[in-house]
Amino acid sequence: MTTLPDYHKATTKREILTRRFFLFLTSLTFIYPLLCFLRYKAPKKPKTVKLQIEIKLGGYHIEPDFVLFENNRQPWAVSRKCTHLGCTIQFREQKRIFECPCHESRFSDQGVVLNGPAKRNLPKYRVEKLEEQKTYLVTM
Ligand code: FES
Q1: Does ligand 1 have an atom closer than 6 angstroms to the CB of 81?
Q2: What are phi and psi of 39, to 5 degrees?
Q3: What atom of ligand 1 comes closest to residue 101's alpha carbon?
């Protein structure tokens, strides 16, 4: 039986390491799309919140997830989740604006960005008013 010289063993180890490296790269090629697929979240089903409250004209009502406004045309609801990094924003009644306590983004009462760092407007939710029952249905 013949033994391999030392320089030949070194070449073999290099080949093995190279093969393992390319095997690792190849498996990443398949694993990465799979991980992207697993992180995929199905869109949420719309949730309807029923509020039996009375809001005077020009008034508002604060809920944990949104603020409901009422004017002489129609009611509207604006999300309280900041579009920058998701902090819960506060409604400042005197200025009628939303302020984020985390990085001080500001939004109008319609949810429009007044100043950043947030770049996207706050989501608005569909509101249905049932006059006879003094009820608001907010679909989020
Ligand atoms: S999370 Fe609201 S401004 Fe950053």
Answers
A1: no
A2: -75, -10
A3: 2
**Is the CB of 114 inside a 6 Å radius of any atom of ligand 1?**
no
Cα–Cα distance, 84 to 99 (Å, whole number) = 12
The CATH class, in words, for 48-139 is: mainly beta
Q: What is the pLDDT of residue 132?
A: 74
Q: What are the extents of the domains in the chain?
A: 11-39, 48-139
Joined together, the tokens standing for residue 131 give 């006059």
**Strands 90-92 and 60-62, sheet pairing:** unpaired
97 lines ligand 1 (CB under 6 A): no
Coil/strand/helix, residue 31: helix
pTM above the 0.70 mark? Answer: no
